[in-house]
Amino acid sequence: MNENANTSAQTDGSPAPGAVSDLFSAIKRNIAKVIVGKDEAADLLLICLATGGHALIEDVPGLGKTSMVAALAASVDCSFQRVQFTPDVLPSDVTGFTMYHPVTGEEKFYQGAVMCNILLADELNRTSPKTQSALLQAMQEGAVTVDGVTRVLPRPFMVCATQNPVEHAGTYPLPEAQLDRFLMRIGMGYPSRTDEAAILARNRGGAVRAPLSPVANAGDVLSMQTALDHVLCSAPVVAYIVDIVQRTRKHEGVSLGVSPRGAIALMRASMGHALLKGRNYTIPDDVQAMANHTLCHRLIPNIHAYTQSQSAEQILADVLRLVPVPVVAGT
User: Kind of pairing, strands 149-152 and 143-146?
Assistant: First the structure.
């Protein structure tokens, strides 16, 4: 299976999995020049990039969420915009707007921040729901409609949103429709003692660091996405994903289970994880590695779960324990 799959990936015009894995590694090494000890978060962001998905990075302030996204954008030499979301940011700041010029008698379109390859929606949950919803069409369709005119966004296109935990003051919880459009929710986490010492050593001086030099470009990212489309997701693995998703809808602690969009997200993320590992076929391990990141933010626990102090992560762990793991040939 390995041998045949690798050969087909190289003869159908898509990059070989090994070449894509090397590209992943080169971008990760570049990001590590400014971000210490966050290999898992970097892996997850790269999987989002390879799948054409969007990432929601959630954690307390000061853990490098913004720096991670900026380092990713610099590493792949893609156009990059950042919007610092506050309660007074308007939807037109995101999507753009048209303005009538009385002298020429024409309407001119002024593009919003979304017209880029990588958009950093910084502290997305600090803006109003109306402005949050301005991103929905862009994230789902890769286009925005302003005054009845639909404009296609550049490719590749990726939204990396950061948010502080919802219990922090001045935050608006993201609605379910918005959360469902993020391929993954990624937590940065506090650094280890060794990593934190390395961070302090790097920042001992006050000099401004030179910007990162790119190690890839937009064309390389599109090649990664083409390679992902050729990753095999066999029938047993697809059935495993379906069983997991359907089990979330029947769990006694869930009021809202995973949607079909969530099932697609888990499948695509599993394919991306396989590609990251240098394979062009998925195995159940890929599904298990991606399940927590792609499904937990889509699960809404019910009152029964709250009374039992059962989180979405605990519910998903229960689901994964109950769903039989298939045996896939070649693993």
Answer: antiparallel
Closest CA to 187 of 158, 167, 169, 164: 164
State pLDDT tens for residues 49-93: 999 999 999 888 888 888 899 999 999 988 999 999 988 999 999
Instruction: Extract the tokens encoding 280.
Output: 């062009």
Contacts of 284 (CB under 8 A, 6+ apart): 237, 240, 325, 326, 328, 331
Residue 58 and residue 161: Cα distance in Å, rounded?
8
Rg (alpha carbons) of the chain, rounded to whole number: 21
What would the two tokens of residue 87 be? 């309660």
- Asked if 30 contacts 211 with a C-beta cutoff of 8 angstroms, the reply is no
Residues contacting residue 291 through CB under 8 Å, at least 6 positions apart: 244, 266, 316, 320
* C-alpha span between 77 and 152 (Å, rounded): 20
Q: What are the Cα distances from residue 317, in Å, to 16, 91, 215, 296, 321? A: 34, 38, 37, 10, 6
Q: Are the CB atoms for 170 and 129 separated by under 8 Å? A: no
- What would the two tokens of residue 230 be? 């050729």
pLDDT tens by residue, 288-318: 999 999 999 998 888 888 888 888 999 999 9
